[in-house]
């Protein structure tokens, strides 16, 4: 009996040992699983932190590149304005040269006529010969003085003309350098856009929405009203109506006002915007900070760019040759968004319309304050 009890205790001990081994293995397996999960969690946390740092670095680089692009656009605008001023001075100078040459020829003709008259009077032994001689002798010093003055004026004009040609050459070199810098910036911006791939879905969604709105719109005005968000109501409860354009806005391009706001063509409706005659290949910039609401071809208007600018304004631009902005892009004041045609015949024309709450705002005072003069022949109707 004692032998049976010993055998039972031995079996119990073996079973207990086996159970202990099994429990220990399970505990070890559970410990390994928990440790692996913790390691994975820490790795994912570190990866998320790295991604956040990379996104922040991409945003900083984008802001710096946008600032450089805006600065390059500002210097390009200054170079274009200086080139236009040089062309105007050169045209005025050529007019002056022509006037001086005409005066010189007229003075020489007067002297020659006086000398001929005096010679004929002497051959006829005419009593008026004395008067003709006196007149010829009197004209000679005056004509000589005019000759000297005209020659000096022409010399000065030619010198100034050469200086203006040199200035134009320097401005052309400056524009080429600026364009090269802009090309480099654009290339860097392309890399930045690659790093901002997470925004692509939002841009595509906005693009699809805009295409839908464009398909539904019948006119350019209808399109502008559809893509412009409603302005926030004033404190009094009503919505803000059309008002003047902020004084801080920049001119979208250099040029002159070829057709004013409110002008009627034939029996048509009054123009709700202005038409600007620009230089060939003139760049177009955003007047203020905002967002690109539409960019592309629309019906018969050609390339159309609509910017929703801060303050509840929408700026409609048509007539561009190329558009460098995309739907959904945030733009800053002065940032290049497009370029006019390179052909100077006829002069490129940019249509500019400003709207707020569905109502057109006269951009004439804003553009005039920014140095865009209007043709004297245009009248608002």
Task: Please tell me the total number of domains.
Answer: 2
What distance lies between the first and last C-alpha atoms, to the nearest angstrom? 128 Å
Number of beta-strand segments: 11
Number of helices: 5
- Sketch the major β-sheet: 8 strands, antiparallel
Give the full name of the CATH homologous superfamily of the largest domain. Answer: Glucose Permease (Domain IIA)
Percent of residues in helices comes to 55-70%
Q: What does the average pLDDT come to? A: 75
Structural class: alpha+beta
The succession of helices and strands, N to C, reads HHHHEEEEEEEEEEEH
Give the CATH class of the largest domain. Mainly Beta
Give the overall form: elongated
Properties at a glance:
381 residues, alpha+beta, Glucose Permease (Domain IIA), three-stranded antiparallel beta sheet, 5 helices, 13% strand
């Amino acid at each position: 009996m004692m032998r049976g009890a010993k055998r039972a205790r031995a079996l119990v001990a073996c079973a207990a040992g086996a159970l202990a081994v099994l429990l220990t293995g399970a505990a070890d397996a559970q410990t390994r699983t928990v440790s692996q999960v913790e390691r994975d969690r820490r790795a994912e946390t570190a990866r998320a932190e790295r991604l956040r740092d990379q996104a922040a670095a991409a945003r900083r680089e984008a802001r710096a590149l946008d600032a450089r692009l805006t600065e390059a656009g500002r210097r390009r605008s200054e170079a274009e304005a200086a080139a236009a001023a040089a062309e105007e001075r050169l045209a005025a100078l050529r007019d002056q040269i022509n006037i001086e040459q005409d005066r010189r020829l007229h003075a020489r003709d007067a002297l020659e006529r006086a000398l001929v008259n005096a010679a004929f009077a002497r051959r006829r032994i005419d009593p008026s010969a004395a008067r003709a001689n006196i007149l010829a002798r009197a004209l000679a010093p005056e004509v000589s003085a005019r000759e000297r003055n005209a020659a000096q004026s022409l010399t000065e004009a030619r010198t100034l003309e050469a200086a203006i040609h040199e200035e134009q050459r320097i401005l052309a070199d400056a524009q080429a350098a600026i364009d090269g810098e802009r090309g480099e910036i654009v290339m860097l911006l392309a890399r930045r856009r690659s790093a901002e791939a997470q925004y692509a879905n939002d841009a595509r969604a906005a693009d699809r929405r805009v295409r839908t709105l464009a398909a539904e719109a019948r006119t350019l005005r209808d399109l502008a009203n559809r893509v412009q968000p409603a302005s926030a109501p004033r404190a009094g409860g009503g919505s803000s109506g059309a008002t003047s354009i902020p004084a801080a806005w920049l001119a979208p391009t250099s040029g002159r006002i070829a057709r004013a706001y409110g002008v009627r063509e034939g029996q048509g409706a009054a123009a709700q915007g202005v038409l600007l005659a620009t230089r060939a290949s003139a760049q177009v910039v955003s007047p203020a900070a905002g967002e690109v609401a539409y960019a592309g071809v629309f019906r018969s208007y050609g390339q159309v760019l609509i910017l929703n600018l801060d303050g509840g304004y929408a700026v409609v631009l048509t007539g561009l040759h190329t558009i460098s902005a995309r739907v959904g892009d945030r733009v800053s004041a002065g940032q290049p968004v497009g370029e006019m045609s390179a052909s100077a015949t006829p002069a490129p024309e940019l249509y500019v319309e400003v709207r707020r709450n569905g109502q057109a705002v006269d951009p004439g005072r804003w553009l005039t304050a920014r140095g865009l003069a209007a043709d004297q022949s245009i009248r608002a109707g």
